Amino acid sequence: MSETMTASWRTLLAESHDALRGAITGVTPGGWDAPTPCEKWSVTQVLQHAAGDQIAYAAAITGGPWPSEDPFSPSGHVDGDPVAYLAAALDASAGAWATVDDRAEQVPVPLPQGPMPAWLAAGACALDAAVHAWDIATATGQPSPLTPAMARPLMEVATRIVEPLRAYGAYAAALDAGDDADDVVMLLAYLGRRPVRAS
């Protein structure tokens, strides 16, 4: 168990939710159909996927409703305000995590690995939100919402959960981060994303 993550997973989850919320808020009206680092998915489809994943975590924890649409087959169409659409999903997720004890050892998750310790389960949820925040920000010309302080604990989570998920198509194969990679670049490369380097 990571003592650092045990103590800080609520902060990491909140920061990741905020990153996703900020990325969606920053999408301009013409940006919803833009291609993203998620192959074959538009910004709207990544939004649908990310929102669906947050609802799935809430459902696993609370026994409440699961996403009404398959997060891995998003339609590319959201009825109503995209910001409100995401807010409902993030509220459900945050509400569910508020019921979880910090040191719970068996927290249900919508992942094939099955129940996990609270810090790792919440970290998986945070990882999903944070990386899709980066996808959307990158696709729409926004600054990266990932910081080194977020990337370090997210990498700890990623190295524990991602390998089995690659077989399900949840993450692409890892890329070479390069010798001069910082924490953010290392995380993105590990998740199969090619970071945009500042010129």
Automatic annotation (TrEMBL):
SUPFAM superfamilies registered for this protein in UniProt: DinB/YfiT-like putative metalloenzymes
A Pfam family recorded for this sequence: MDMPI_N
InterPro entries (alphabetical): CHP03086 (IPR017520), DinB/YfiT-like (IPR034660), Maleyloyr_isom (IPR017517), MDMPI_metal-binding (IPR024344)
Domain of life of the organism encoding this protein: Bacteria
Boundaries of every Mycothiol-dependent maleylpyruvate isomerase metal-binding domain copy: 13-137
Transmembrane segments: none
UniProt-recorded name of the protein: TIGR03086 family metal-binding protein
Lineage: Bacteria, Bacillati, Actinomycetota, Actinomycetes, Streptosporangiales
